[in-house]
Write a structure and sequence with these properties.
The complex is a heterotrimer of chains A (292), B (338) and C (330).
Chain A: H1 16-38, H2 76-112, H3 114-129, H4 132-142, H5 148-155, H6 161-175, H7 178-185, H8 190-226, H9 237-246, H10 255-283
Chain B: H1 6-33, H2 38-50, H3 56-67, H4 73-85, H5 100-104, H6 107-134, H7 140-145, H8 157-171, H9 191-228, H10 231-238, H11 243-280, H12 286-295, H13 299-327, H14 331-334
Chain C: E1 10-23, E2 26-39, E3 43-47, H1 54-61, E4 69-78, E5 81-82, H2 88-94, E6 99-102, H3 116-125, H4 133-146, H5 163-174, E7 181-185, H6 193-210, E8 213-218, H7 221-227, E9 230-235, E10 238-244, H8 245-250, H9 255-262, H10 301-305, E11 311-314, E12 317-319, H11 322-329
Parallel strand pairs in C: 3-8, 3-9, 6-7, 7-8
Antiparallel strand pairs in C: 1-2, 1-4, 4-5, 9-10, 10-12, 11-12
Classes of the chains: A mainly alpha (292), B mainly alpha (338), C alpha/beta (330).
Chain lengths: 292, 338, 330
């Protein structure tokens, strides 16, 4: 069996979907990174600006609030600049915890087999099927969330089963490969085998699972925020949508209130989706070259 | 022969019980592991919202007593599990004499119906599209059109729902924006009512179907590409079977099996997503009831809905599991390796 | 050796067949101007190292070359019909009725989710639509019996059968419509030796009883020696020698055939073909001249300049080699 090298310069990592998706996420990240340098983020809070101003291109638009303001006097641009990175942060933290737990549980299951494998696999299977939002709602209703980190920790509860399944399946497959067997026979310990021999080969799968996990966690967080269960004092994309629907912004035609957060979220989800697909194609070359 | 062996059914039933138990336990335990207790935090919220609550301390004490929160945790836990088994979810907090079950029960059929129809449409359309995309013999004009159906794949159901709500209902006035049926009709087995129910369900349905079918299509495409290269698929062509027969009996028939597994695994996500869609369209299902419970701080109703959703998911997964061996004869041999 | 003119009609004829695989780095020539024929009631072996294009030729005859592969040139005549010119529909009607396939023994050629009766029934019903239920069952049971399988196989799924049994199901399926030609693509590969013998014997029985002609692709020279009437030797997409099995084994003419025969330890001990020395050329870019020039011990300038044509040097015996030709002339 030829060992697949995964170098940074490997042309297969320059997958088209990966590049496009990556650029989309990069743009969104830049909103949060560069935005505060050009715009006063204090305007994201209640009463900092005039109420219900339309965006600059509308009739009564105002240069001081290019994307308009909402009915509590919050500047939309400032809210987006503050809210976007906080949504990404939640996804990143939750997915990282999920991946870490998944790596440990998955390799334990794959390596030890037997009872350990049975228990971990069954737990992961059950946890995957549970409707996370319903559980999250109950939890979030109890735990008073001051900031996004607590929310990320709660979301991590549902971020581990997928990486666990992936890692376990990969360990089981890779364990049978010649070079891994050689490493085991030559006395390398399980830890070395896992991290030196197996991990590089799992990379595309792990990366796909990770990006999928990020967007899953962002989806969960947004869902909670939209239902009004997120941190209430920090602007977030979901909270803006919650406030907008609560104030009947859709019916009243205040499109500049609810549409920008939805557009940004759509870019985020599409971006991560494309990245995940691109990574899947790298991990599973059979999918490549088929029209999509 | 495959089929439903006793051991298989028992194993699956065990998974069914386990899933419900894990979910119910998470719902019970995690809030109690967090600092503070539900009653105090609820009263704090009320304080936050209304500025001041009369006799807050006594209220907390009274509620704690009623919920049995002063008992040791394990007693509370067993009482909770025991009540669950008897379908006793306690009283609604917001509408005291009504039980939580009575609050949720009217919403259930709406949710189950919406979910079932959405699921059937998205699974059927998505898999057909995917299978055609992965099939070598699909005409190229179709190959070029089909990917368009993937456009909305990555967008969460409810966000797409908001866009539909705004453009189709509020801007174009083509379809009703919210509710389950028109105020002008009387519920019952009459044509106007049924027509109204269908009209009102179109937008929520379309939100779910258009956004979720792409996932099936993508999965199915990959599986079909794989089956295309299987020897039995080639042999079926060599046998001179009609393309339709090769496609369905030797292609889709095999490629659909992992899709069904994915369906079982994705059930929770689907239910979560459709709850948010119900909220967006004020559709009278459990999702909307949940939203109202959140607003009214009706903690028992939230918990009831959550447990019922877990039950619905676990039941559908269990039913799928029972269906599986009937279509895949190898199941009893293979399941153990999955 | 006595040569007599063979008058038996040709049931399968491959004329000037070329198959190219179009890759991003140029076209791979998997079969180049392949010419041979199969006489009625004869078994012909098509041998060569793996990757030499023998399976490609089989797939081309069946009109089942998968993209990015394409038949770029040639004619395939089966029982008086030319396949390359048939429409998809005509081809479908002809398949299995005129031309059946016994697939590789190593493969999962049976659909795992259909019962044997359904898979055999599919093949029969596709061509005899009006067949009654009871007749069909009778027919399938008879076919199973013909290949020595018990009747209970009728209701079984592929995963319940052993490798040898599955392969016999495939043989039963291949003879279901009594086709004049069967293509067997390494029918015994990956089966253990005892089972190989059973499968090979089943094929021979079937051939004897039905008088079917067979093209048997394989790399097991020992097995070929015992089963076939004539052998075609393929190297890098080109036929280099076609001849009666005795001639090929006793007096191989082409240097590559000689190499192949030498590589067999003894006629009873079978092992897959493996000729280790020498580098083959890049298949996208074959050299002008003889295809075997880089590995041939007798290579001359003539061989590098032009490609030797496949010429009949004795009845039913063809060789593509300048050395052999000049030796015969001398």
């Amino acid at each position: 069996m030829v060992r697949r090298s995964v170098s940074r310069y490997n042309p297969e990592w320059l997958n088209k979907k990966l590049v496009i998706g990556g650029s989309m996420i990069l743009v969104v990240v830049l909103i949060g990174l560069v935005g505060p340098l050009f715009w006063n983020t204090d305007l994201a809070y209640v009463g900092s600006s005039p109420r219900s101003l339309p965006p600059i291109w509308a009739l009564k638009g105002n240069i001081a609030h290019p994307l308009g303001t909402e009915n509590m006097g919050r500047d939309m641009l400032a809210q987006l600049i503050v809210g976007t990175p906080s949504s990404l942060k939640v996804g990143l933290i939750a997915a990282s915890i999920g991946l870490g737990v998944g790596l440990v549980l998955g390799s334990l299951a794959g390596y030890m087999g037997g009872k350990v494998d049975n228990i971990i696999r069954t737990l992961a299977d059950s946890a995957t099927t549970i409707p996370s939002l319903a559980v999250l709602v109950v939890i979030a209703a109890h735990v008073r969330m001051q900031d996004t980190t607590v929310m990320a920790l709660i979301l991590a509860l549902f971020a581990w089963p997928h990486p666990t399944r992936i890692v376990r399946a990969q360990v089981l497959t890779l364990r049978e490969r010649g070079y891994v067997r050689m490493a085991i026979l030559s006395g390398a310990n399980a830890f070395e085998v896992m991290f030196i021999e197996m991990l590089p080969n799992m990379l595309p799968w792990l990366a796909a699972s990770y990006t999928g996990g990020i967007s899953g966690a962002i989806l969960g967080a947004t869902g909670l925020e939209v239902l009004g269960l997120g941190p209430a004092r920090v602007p977030s994309l979901g909270l803006i949508i919650n406030q907008a629907t609560g104030a009947s912004a859709l019916m009243r035609g205040l499109y500049w209130w609810w549409m920008p957060p939805i557009l940004i979220l759509m870019i985020i989800f599409t971006g991560f989706f494309l990245i995940t697909m691109g990574l899947d194609e790298i991990a599973n070359p059979r999918l490549r070259g088929v029209k999509a | 022969m495959g089929g439903l062996t006793k051991q298989y059914v028992l194993t699956r039933f065990f998974m069914f019980v386990l899933t419900i138990w894990i979910g119910a336990t998470a719902v019970f335990l995690i809030p109690r592991l967090a600092p503070g207790d539900p009653v105090t935090s609820m009263v704090m919220r009320m304080t936050e919202r209304e500025g001041r609550v009369e006799n807050a301390q006594e209220l907390i004490a009274a509620w704690k007593e009623r919920f049995g929160l002063n008992d040791p945790l394990y007693i509370q836990y067993f009482r909770y599990l025991g009540n669950l088994v008897r379908f006793d979810f306690g009283y609604s907090l917001a509408n005291f004499p009504t039980t939580a079950w009575e609050m949720v029960r009217p919403a259930l059929p709406w949710s189950v119906r919406l979910l079932a129809v959405a699921l059937i449409f998205s699974f059927a359309i998505g898999n057909t599209v995917g299978a055609l995309m992965g099939w070598r013999k699909t005409p190229s004009w179709l190959q070029n059109i089909l990917p368009l159906s993937l456009t909305f794949t990555s967008i969460p159901y409810f966000m797409f729902g908001i866009l539909l709500l705004y453009f189709i209902a509020f801007q174009l006035h083509l379809l009703p924006a919210s509710g389950g049926y028109s105020r002008d009709v009387t519920p019952g087995w009459n044509l106007p009512y049924i027509r109204s129910v269908i009209t009102y369900s179109i937008l929520p349905l379309v939100s779910i179907v258009l956004t979720s079918m792409g996932g099936w299509a993508l999965g199915m495409r990959g599986l079909m590409v794989g089956v295309n290269n299987e020897d039995y698929f080639l042999l079926a062509q060599a046998k001179g079977l009609s393309p339709a027969r090769v496609f369905f009996r030797y292609g889709v028939r095999n490629a659909i099996l992992p899709s069904l597994t994915a369906l079982a695994l994705g059930m929770g996500g689907l239910i979560s997503g459709s709850m948010l869609v119900e909220y967006i369209f004020a559709y009278p299902g459990t999702g909307y009831t949940l939203y109202r419970a959140i607003i009214t701080q009706d903690y028992t109703v939230m918990q009831t809905i959550c447990n019922l959703m877990i039950l619905i998911t676990a039941t559908s997964v269990f039913l799928l599991d029972l269906l599986y061996p009937l279509i895949d004869p190898r199941i009893t041999f293979r399941r153990s390796q999955m | 050796m006595i040569h007599r003119i063979n008058e038996t009609p040709k049931i399968l004829e491959v004329k000037d067949l070329s198959v190219h695989y179009f890759t991003s780095r140029g076209a791979v020539i998997a079969a180049n101007s392949v010419n041979f024929y199969l006489r009625q009631g004869e078994i012909m072996g098509l041998v060569g190292e793996s990757g030499c294009g023998k399976t490609t030729v089989a797939m081309a005859i069946l009109q089942m070359v998968q993209s990015p592969g394409k038949i770029t040139h040639g004619e395939i005549w089966v029982d008086g019909e030319e396949l390359n010119s048939l429409s998809e529909r005509e081809l479908r009607q002809l398949r299995w009725r005129k031309l059946a396939l016994v697939p590789q023994g190593a493969m999962n050629s049976l659909n795992p989710v259909l019962k044997i009766k359904e898979q055999m029934g599919d093949a029969i019903l596709a061509h005899e639509r009006q067949l009654g239920r009871a007749t069909l069952k009778q027919r399938i049971l008879q076919l199973l019996d013909d290949v020595g399988l018990p009747a209970r196989v009728y209701e079984m799924f592929p995963h319940e059968l052993s490798g040898g049994m599955k392969q016999r199901v495939c043989i039963a399926m291949a003879i279901a419509l009594n086709p004049p030609v069967i293509i067997a693509d390494e029918p015994t590969s990956a089966l253990d030796v005892v089972v190989q013998r059973v499968v090979a014997q089943t094929l021979l029985d079937v051939k004897k009883r039905l008088g079917v002609s067979m093209l048997m692709i394989g790399h097991d020279m020992g097995l070929q020696a015992q089963m076939v009437d004539r052998v075609a030797v393929m190297y890098a997409g080109n036929l280099v020698e076609v001849g009666p099995v005795e001639a090929i084994f006793e007096e191989p003419l082409h240097p590559y055939t000689q190499l192949l025969i030498e590589s067999i330890p003894s006629i009873d001990e079978r092992k897959p073909l493996k000729v280790t020395e020498g580098l083959t050329h890049d298949l996208r870019n074959p050299p002008p001249g003889c295809i075997f020039q880089f590995r041939c011990p007798y290579v001359t300038d003539e061989c590098r300049a032009g490609r030797p044509p496949l010429e009949e040097i004795a009845p039913d015996h063809f060789v593509a080699c300048f050395k052999v030709k000049s030796a015969r002339l001398a």
